[in-house]
Structure formats: C-alpha cells, structure tokens
Amino acid sequence: MKRTTVDILSSYVDALHPIIYINHFDFKVIDDAIKQIGTNARIVEYNNALGLIDFYNKSPMQECDLEKFLKLTLDDGFEQETFLVLKDIHKELDNPKIISLLKRISEDNLYKENYHATIFIISDTVVIPTELENYITVFDIPLPSTTEILDIINEFTADLEIEVEQDIISDIALSFKGLNEFQIKQILNLAYQDGGCIDKEDKLLILKEKEQFIKKAGMLEIVSFSETIDDIGGLENLKDWLHRKAKIFANLDKAIKFGVDVPKGIMIIGMPGCGKSLTAKATASLFEIPLVRLDVGRLLGKYVGESENNMRKALKLSEAISPCVLWIDEIEKAFAGVGSEGGNEVTTRLFGQFLTWMQEKENTVFIVATANDISRMPPEFMRKGRFDELFFVDLPNGEERRKIIDIHLKKRKKWNKNIDSIALINETNGFNGADIEAVVKDTIERAFIDGKITITTEDLIESVRDTKSISSTLKDKISMIKATIEKIDIKPASREDSGVHQYKNV
Ligand code: ATP
C-alpha cells in the first residue's frame, strides 16, 4: 500500500467525508490502509456474505442483514470514533431503508459535534443512489507510477535473490504501466516461474498478460496494427501536421521542459472508407506509442452511476498506459443527441465527464476521435480548444486516388511501371480508399485465377467497372456529410490537387 493512498483516505476522514466509496477488488490492500488510518478508531466490518465480522481476525461474529447491522451500529460514533467498513454491498444500495440509515449516519457525522463515524464502502462496482450523491466520495486507488513500479520490481527481485540488470528492470517497468501492484506481482511471479529469472524475453509475456488484464477490465482495447503513415495515400495536410507533432512525442521530456503544451488530440471527420481508422493506427505508429480504443457503448452499465464510474476507470487506465493514442471510433454514435431534447441522460453525463477530462487533461494521452456524420454531435465538442485540430477527410482527389492505387498494388507486389495512372484516375471518380483497395484485391484475384503473371491497366479498369463506388451506394449520406461540414470551421485533410494531370475529378 502506497503512502499516498493512506494520506488521501486519512484527509477524507479528517475532513468529515461521511461515506468513502473505495472502488477496488483487493480487500487486503484496503484493510491495511484502513488499519493505518484507524489506529484510534473502533473498526466494525460488515460483509455481504457473513454479516458482522471481526475486522482484525475476520472471524464471523453475528449473522445479520445490512439493515440490522446499521441499526446495531447506528450510535457507535457517539462513544468513540468509528469506522464502518461495508464490503460488497453495492446490490443493497437500491433499498430505501439502507439509504435512509446511511444518510442518517452521514448527517450525524457532519452536523453532530460529539459524533464521529465514517463509512467505507468497498466494492469493485460503484453504485451511487441519487439520495446519497452529496455524501459519497469515490476513491480509486492510484495506479503505481514508474518509480513505484521500479520499487515493486526491485523488492521482488531482492526477495527472491535474483540478479537483474537495471537496464532490463527500467525497460520492463514501462511495460507494467497501467497495472496495479497486485497485477504486477502476479505477472512477475509468472515470469519467474517460467524461466527462473527475469530477463528481456519476459517483456513479451508482460505485454501479453497486460493485454489480458486490460481486456478483462473490458473498458479499453489494445489495438494491434501494422499500418504506418506511408500506407496512407494522400491526406497530406493531415500527415504533415502529424509529422510535426511526432517530433514532440519523440522528445516528450525535453519538449515539456521547453514549455511546449503536450498535444491533446485531433478529430477526423469525413467520408466512410477514406482512411480515418487508418490514420488512427498510423498516428500510433508514427508517435511510437500504443493504440488503445475506447468504445463508449461498452461503458454503459445498468446501475446508477455505473457508466460514469466505467468512464472514469477507462480514462484513468488510458492515463496510466500513457503516452498512448486513445482512439474513439464513431464518436458521433456515442454522443449523438447529447443535450438535445429527449437525449439520453446517462450519455449526457458521460459526455460532460469526457469533455471536462479533455479540457483539464495535462497528460500524454493523444486522442484521435473519428466520425462520419456529425450533424447530431453537440456543438461544444467541436469548439476550438477541445481538440488541437479538426480535419475533414473528403473522397480522394485524382492525385490521391493514384497514390492509393499504387500503395495497394505495391503492398501486394503487383505494381509495374506500365500501369496507366491517368486512365485509372479517370475511371475511379467518386471512389473512396476502401473501394480502390477492393478493386486492387479483385484484380489480383482474377489474374491469379486466370493464370496471369502480371496485371495490366485493362485488368484494373475491368474491376473498376464491376465495382459500385461509395458515391453511388451512399449518395445521400455523402451529400449530408458535405452539407454539415460546410457549417463548421474545419481543415481539409487533403492538399489541393495540383491538377498537373489531365483527368476529371468529382
Ligand atoms: P469508416 O468511416 O467507414 O470507418 P474509415 O475512414 O475509417 O471508414 P478506413 O477503415 O481507414 O476508413 O479505410 C478502410 C480501408 O480502405 C483501409 O484499411 C485502407 O486499406 C483503405 N484506405 C482508405 N483510405 C485510404 C487511403 N487514403 N490510403 C490508403 N488506403 C486507404
């Protein structure tokens, strides 16, 4: 247990916070902290399964329900400072009698001079009844910093008397970011059992295990990818912007000391299949940091306060993993209709929470938010200052289509100098990147089936003519996106077509 946790909890008790809701799964860790701050207090514990139990030796003392327990202990705070430690009771928090009893203790704690009782609720699920909102303080145990992780590893290797080079320790310490002390020790044990030592090879194991923990938490997904910035055809303005910001991420320490503000993130709005997701991956690759995806829909819970708690956990986790790219795909679906009449209340609260976090954030989480249709997005989201920049990704212009064709042919080692770019540019008017990729794939497949060694411009044109472009299949959606974009201050992701080639553009 880190000193900071004890300090914070202790300051809450001193400041008469009546209910401290500790969001944690490891009761032992919390018991240790409560013990440290409650040396002069009487500590009484209620466990959902066992009733009243002895806080110190954990032996059951009296089987009873929570209501009876609270009535029994209601006046204890008059006799001596009392801590009521309630474990796993979140399912009881919709019971009006329980709510009233908790409220009565909270009010006595706040307003009666000779009464001092603090309630600790410990559970890995946070449920906050609206009637108790003003009395509850939610506390998340902070995740260990890099220095603290180094201490944990050093302590572990010293206990087992194993020698590990400091370079390796520093290296694996970074991979542990985002995990709690319990999880770090679990992985260290696993690594040690695996080969009887801790070495460079264990980094892979750590990353795999870490991915498992993050997956289990269900809040964020670590996205693996192989795409780089060179896989994007066109979008030159956006790529230039990212290349400049990459210089900051490459020298983060120096940049911060120099007074540079850490980039907050970008919002990429535009046509489907034109490289928005590709850009999120390429950004992480260019900045050389992990890519984690936040799916707001997955945060929604069925209990009061659960969704907000999930959002807090997810944002905290992203901070712990940082520097990282936090990718929020289809952000319009997550926050559509927020603030408008009939908008969902929980989503509105989540949106507010996210906005405040973005506004205040001083961490190295770089947000890439991607969206198609922003007509129902709350306007405050798009206001300058939230994101560093807003980019519009349009259907690729002629030059861009040529580059995209080349990229996909080269990727599959089928590019050759006889391919007539101009003819293809003219034929692919209104195609998006995904359409073009499909054309290349289809042409190569046909060539293979027909026993051809290479592919020609005619082969590609044949596939193009058999492909229905997005401009024909999603005509209305495209016009709607264009109409919305015209109303906001947004930068084009693409550089203007130089028009040196003689071809038609949409
Ligand atoms: P959606 O809005 O439907 O999610 P998106 O803009 O995120 O679409 P991507 O997933 O990035 O689209 O693109 C789909 C695929 O199309 C990519 O995997 C890539 O192969 C190809 N593609 C799209 N745009 C480009 C581009 N500018 N350069 C190279 N390939 C592209």
Topology readout:
Elements: H1 3-14, E1 19-23, H2 27-37, E2 42-47, E3 51-53, E4 60-62, H3 66-73, H4 76-79, E5 82-87, H5 96-111, E6 117-123, E7 136-139, H6 146-159, H7 166-175, H8 181-195, H9 202-217, E8 220-222, H10 236-250, H11 252-258, E9 265-270, H12 276-287, E10 291-294, H13 306-321, E11 324-328, H14 331-335, H15 345-360, E12 365-371, H16 379-382, E13 389-393, H17 398-411, H18 421-427, H19 433-449, H20 457-466, H21 470-473, H22 475-485, E14 491-492
Helix pairs in contact: 1-2, 3-5, 6-7, 6-8, 8-9, 13-15, 17-18, 17-19, 18-20, 19-20
Adenosine-5'-triphosphate is lined by residues 231-235, 272-278, 370, 372, 404, 407, 433-434, 437.
The SS-based structural class is alpha/beta
- Count of separate DSSP helical elements: 22
What's the overall geometry?
A: elongated
Parts with pLDDT < 50 across at least 5 consecutive residues: none
What gap, in angstroms, lies between the N and C termini?
Answer: 62 Å
Largest sheet: 7 strands, mixed
Which percent range describes the beta-strand content? 5-15%
What is the strand tally?
14
Question: Please, could you describe this protein's structure?
Answer:
The protein is built from 22 helices and 14 strands. It has 506 residues and is α/β, with parallel strands linked by helices. The chain folds into four domains: 3-139, P-loop containing nucleotide triphosphate hydrolases (Rossmann fold); 146-217, Helicase, Ruva Protein, domain 3; 229-235 and 262-390, 3-Layer(aba) Sandwich (Rossmann fold); 398-502, Helicase, Ruva Protein, domain 3 (Orthogonal Bundle). The strands form two sheets. It has a seven-stranded mixed sheet, sandwiched between helices. It has a seven-stranded mixed sheet with strand order 8-10-11-12-9-13-14, with helices on both faces. It is elongated. It binds adenosine-5'-triphosphate. Adenosine-5'-triphosphate binds at residues 231-235, 272-278, 370, 372, 404, 407, 433-434, 437.
